[in-house]
Design brief:
- The protein is of the alpha/beta class and about 220 residues long.
- The protein has helices at about 10-20, 25-30, 35-45, 60-70, 80-95, 110-115, 135-145, 165-180, 190-200; strands at about 50-55, 75-80, 100-105, 125, 155-160, 200-210, 215-220.
- Strand 6 (about 200-210) and strand 7 (about 215-220) form a beta hairpin.
- The protein starts with 7 loop residues before the first helix and ends with a strand.
Length: about 220
Amino acid sequence: MSRSAESPPTVHIMDRIYGRQRHIYDVSRKYFLLGRDVLIAELKPPPDGSVIEIGCGTGRNLIAAARAYPDATFFGVDVSSAMLATARANIRRSGLESRIRLALGDAARFDAAALFGRATFDRAFFSYSLSMIPPWREALDQAFTLLDPQGGRLLIVDFGEQAGLPAWFKRMLLAWLAKFHVSPRTGLPPALEALARARGGNLVLRPLYRDYARLAQFVR
């Protein structure tokens, strides 16, 4: 997808924030983007399955998932060309170029068939990206359309309500996240429940680390 077809404010904000931070992103984020590896362990794509990450960032999750599931093929889309440049370099160093394909695109309206030559996937996932996507409801709806009608699954890990943590911690976390245009989506559980009812399927929501994060899984 060309830049003209994307949302300019989102593109500019993401490239401005992560143009430099992408070089230290994985090192710094491993201490607070908790639950990413839990999601990867839950992916379990079928043999010769297809997996797409929406908001793939530096490619960290795609590389880890490709190593965990050597029979699957992986795809990633991100709105930031700067992040994609880092992802491509990381994937090249990992030796997984033949199994991971990337494309520039807006999470809320990219054309998977045009970008990757396929319209549906066995697995789709968001890893701490919905909290960075302004039209997150539209991105969520888009992801549901990407699922294979025969057993496709959507998985999401993102910030929870921190219900089991001290109030001061939540205040500090939210203030810090706001500096990076990150907004935990408090409306995510009801939005997922509404989509599950509309689309038909089973939804499981699971708190992680005293509700620091939440893992959601929708199965068609």
